[in-house]
Design a protein that fits this description.
The complex is a heterodimer. Chain A is an alpha/beta fold. A 4-stranded parallel sheet of chain A has the order 2-1-3-4, sandwiched between helices. Helices cover 45% and strands 14% of the residues of chain A. Chain A has one domain (8-130): Rossmann fold (3-Layer(aba) Sandwich), CATH 3.40.50.510. In chain A, β3, α3 (75-86) and β4 form a beta-alpha-beta unit. By secondary structure, chain B is of the alpha+beta class. Chain B has a single domain (3-85), classed as Histidine-containing Protein, Chain: A (2-Layer Sandwich), CATH 3.30.1340. A 4-stranded antiparallel sheet of chain B has the order 1-4-2-3. In chain B, β2 and β3 form a beta hairpin. In chain B, α1 (17-27) runs antiparallel to α3. Classes of the chains: A alpha/beta, B alpha+beta. The A-B interface holds A 25, 28-31, 33, 103, 106-107, 109-110, 113-114, 128, 131-133 and B 17-18, 20-22, 24-25, 28-29, 47-50, 52-53.
């Protein structure tokens, strides 16, 4: 089902496998109603982050309602911030969520699936830090 | 009108991540507040992480309680999802 108008999610990780696996999980929990794009690893497949991959994921995740970005750790955050500071050709609106990566991705995807805006989706991701799993 | 409604269901299978997502998406469509309770733990049905966090497993009784104007419809919808989504083989 095409869901134009849903907020898209971009998962930025040092690891391509971690980003892809988290995107797969969040996408399935969200019943395929939301575009969840991974942006993991460097351009040559090593651990790290890639501006080109993040740019591509942002464009692919945007269906008009904006995008929420979840970085995993450290330099993922720095790379995302550097890219946003540049500002050129970014989806609008766009928010970076300060959230646990897996829980945040799942919570954000559900918030987007039920029609939340960028602010609501980013808040859902950030509230995931309080969710107990035990 | 503020109404409340409640029903219980015995799960035929474990409440996995995917049905927890379907349940949270369905719950968000109702105005009523909706709570799940199982084995002494409770969860906000509109929060996927909360629903996953109760770790409801096969054979457990889950009670669905809703309070609000569409409480009866909410309880019917959520118990329906719990029945379908935890069917063995789903």
């Amino acid at each position: 089902m095409s869901e134009a108008g849903r907020v898209g999610i971009v998962l930025v990780s040092h690891s391509a496998a971690l980003a892809a696996g988290t995107a797969e999980l969040a996408g399935q929990v969200g019943a395929g109603e939301v575009i969840v794009m991974p942006a993991g690893g460097t351009d040559d497949g090593r651990l790290g982050t890639s501006i080109a991959k993040i740019r591509h994921a942002l464009a692919a995740a945007d269906s008009g309602a904006g995008v929420v970005v979840l970085p995993d750790l450290g330099s993922s955050v720095l790379t995302v911030r550097a890219l946003l500071a540049d500002g050129e050709g970014m989806p609008e609106p766009l928010a970076v969520a300060d959230a646990p990566f897996v829980e945040g991705a799942v919570a954000a995807t559900i918030a987007a699936a039920v029609g939340g805006d960028v602010k609501a989706v980013a808040s859902a991701a950030e509230e995931a830090r309080h969710a107990r799993k035990l | 009108m503020r109404a409340s409604s409640e029903a219980s269901i015995t799960l035929a299978g474990d409440l996995h991540a995917r049905p927890a997502g379907s349940l949270a998406i369905a719950a968000a469509k109702f105005e009523s507040s909706i709570e799940l309770a199982a084995a002494g733990r409770s969860a906000d049905a509109k929060s996927v992480l909360s629903v996953m966090g109760i770790g409801a497993t096969s054979g457990q009784v889950v009670t669905v309680r809703a309070i609000g104007p569409d409480a009866a419809q909410a309880v019917a919808a959520i118990t329906g999802i719990l029945a379908d989504a935890t069917k063995v083989g789903s």
